[in-house]
Amino acid sequence: MTRADILVYNGTILTMDDQDTIIQDGLVAISGNTIQCVGNDEKGSISAERELDAEGGLILPGLINGHTHAAMTLFRGLADDLPLMDWLNNYIFPAEGKMDADFVRTGTLLACAEMIMSGTTTFCDMYLFEEEVAKAAKEGGMRCLVGEVLYDFPSPNYGAVEEGFIYTEELIERWKKDPLINVAVEPHSLFTCGVELLVKANDLALRKGVPLILHMAETREELEEIEKRYGKGPAVHLKDLGLLGPHLILDHCVHVSESDIELLAEHKVSVIHNPESNMKLASGIAPVPEMMGRGITVGLGTDGCASNNNLDLFGEMDMAAKLHKANKLDPAVMDARTLVRMATINGARALGLEKVTGSLEAGKRADLIVIDLHKPHLIPMYNPFCHLVYSARGHDVKHSIIDGQVVMEDRRLYTLDVEAIIERSKEKSRKVREWVR
Question: What is the pLDDT of residue 319?
Fold first, then answer.
């Protein structure tokens, strides 16, 4: 008899492997932090110390939030219905200037609780005081890719940008052997970072063998500003600086031309699509079908809660599918299977984590969730991919396992004290009200 530590059984498995294999009445056996086997439910042949009955639900890889600012949960609803630059310059940047490490830690713990309870097991973060983000993710048992945001102007965390590079390099070294925490180099954007900063950031990322991440072409105003400064568009600017390459992850890419897309595809750059944030800020609609048509790996992100208001990737999948159908007047574009891949294996591939997570295959880390189908809004089910995108929501996640650890069972979160985090978050929100009066 085969031995395992955890057995998840009695469910329909969406492996999200290269063939999108579906296993009816399947099981996943886990040893340590690794998937031991995925197959048909022959439970009697496997003995496990702990068993989770999926009760006929869906078993799939944990979702991957490819771009967020986790601690911005504490700015949720702070400055809604405003243009991006007004929102940033008159509300977000002033509030961020008064934050401290404990503020970021509290907001990130709140985000981790929300993400775990809505099916996300991995997230990519760009923010301030990222050491606290890493610690909070570790406490919650979440997998992440984090990086300290770098600007040309002083940061409330590290001060001058020279110190920001020191902080980033120390962050990389401190967490490089951790099984859950990965670190990237993250200049904010082309309109907040000059040539010298961008080149230095790229050099650091290449030297350390880590991803380089930045916002690009999110708004028309940004596009006009870059063309005014440099006489060229942002993608060409990045190419001329030598930044384009498979190590580069670009967030948003709303206003990119056909020639920009060709450049990104040629250099194997990855993109993270943030449809709800782009819609709410009226930034525009990213040409995602065109990017994917050219072979660009596109993952899915929520962005921060100040420009989205939640971290539910099920809602993001639903919105992304419908947004592009309406934009193209084509009901077949951005089908459900594509969206589930964006939120799982393609998200992992975009972040450089596809060998670790994103699909349920023997040898990969055990990151998976179970969806409870025994609910009125999920009956009946004809196509599991369509069900996940158009019917399911985060609150339908019943169990969550990350790196072989059961972090949530029957919607009870084991790694974090949710009530205590909520109370701490309410205290921080009172400070925010004072900051933006």
Answer: 98
